[in-house]
Amino acid sequence: MLLRHAMGTVLRRIRTERGATLRQLSERSRISIPYLSEIERGRKEASSEILAALCRVLDVTEGELLSMAAAEFAAEFAAGAPVLSLVPERREPAHEVAEPAHPAALLLAA
What we know:
By secondary structure, the chain is mostly helical. It contains 6 helices and no strands. It starts with a helix and ends with a helix.
């Protein structure tokens, strides 16, 4: 699971608990319906400015939103949701010296 999936799940839950439609949230936050939908489905990573606008409209603090998203992420992780890894697993025994990593792998790890 990616953090953006957890954030989208939490945002959708808050919106529906408040009884708001995507259209209503869009009008109040001045964020397009398609973009809001992509955020809620975890397909787009919302900027801090977008998240702040959504928090204002949904009457939740940024801290509360992040705490709820962290809890959602932890729950999915505990349930065995797959975690995306950008660093390949090493399969050689620990006593052997590994070859240097590919330069692209170093850039992703940095």
